[in-house]
Amino acid sequence: MSAPLSGWMRRAFSDPRLNVYVAAANGDVAVAERLYWWNIEVSGAFYGPLHCLELGPRNALDVQLRSAYARDMWWDAAPLTASGQRMVAEARAKCRRRGNASVAADDVVAQLSFGFWTSLLSNSRGSQYDRRLWVPILHRAFPHYRGRRKDLHDNLEAMRLLRNRIMHHEPIHHRDLTADHRKIYRLIQYIDRASAKEANALDRVQFVLADRQAVCDGSRLPRF
């Protein structure tokens, strides 16, 4: 399907990307254009909550691992999988490429991806993370969580994938974004309820979600 959208949008964003929005708008090009801009607006609104969700577990897990192994560079002693060891090596290499004469633990922590921290809660084949990391150490990073480690991992992984879609400028308008929003805050609350409360005070996701119809029917322009 060829979408007769604004010429500059087609040149800037490409027909394959824009045609997804035309299909979602049942062929109404005007609505498709406004939906595209609303998708950018709501993606931007999610940036703040996802920022807190990514940094919260990272720092909470790092604190517990430093304490358990009595060293800042705990990855030298922790039973990481081959994949985990590779990600640490890549993070160290990235620090060195940035010209750091000596790579500090905090530098490596900052370079480790959301995927790395989420993987510490997994129980992938052969990792034995559940018994060797979660039970003795990592559950302390989530003092307000009483469920299964697998459920926590799966929910964090789902939000990591949402974060990746947003950072790669993919469509998220079709998702149950209200449920995603609630899930982010539940996960933050498992670590620190005060952080969740303060982050929510600055959050505008719910307002953007409430205005979707107004944007798509043209009575309000997106704000981002």
Could you explain how this protein is built, in words?
Helix 2 (15-24) packs across helix 3 (29-69), helix 3 (29-69) packs across helix 8 (149-167) and helix 3 runs parallel beside helix 9. The chain is built from twelve helices and no strands. The model has no long low-confidence stretch (mean pLDDT 93). 66% of the residues lie in helices and 0% in strands. It has helices at 7-13, 15-24, 29-69, 82-97, 105-111, 114-119, 129-134, 149-167, 177-191, 193-201, 205-210, 212-216. With 224 residues, the protein is an all-alpha fold.
Short description:
The protein is mostly helical.
Number of strands: 0
Radius of gyration: 21 Å
Please tell me what the overall shape is: elongated
What is the makeup of the main sheet?
none
Q: What proportion of the residues form beta strands (DSSP E)?
A: under 5%
Structural class of the helices, strands and pairings? mainly alpha
Straight-line N-to-C gap:
29 Å
What is the helix tally? 12
- Sketch the topology as an H/E string, one letter per element: HHHHHHHHHHHH
Q: Which parts are unreliable, with pLDDT below 50 for 5 consecutive residues or more?
A: none
Q: Give the oligomeric state.
A: single chain
Helical percent range?
Answer: 55-70%
Q: pLDDT average, as an integer?
A: 93
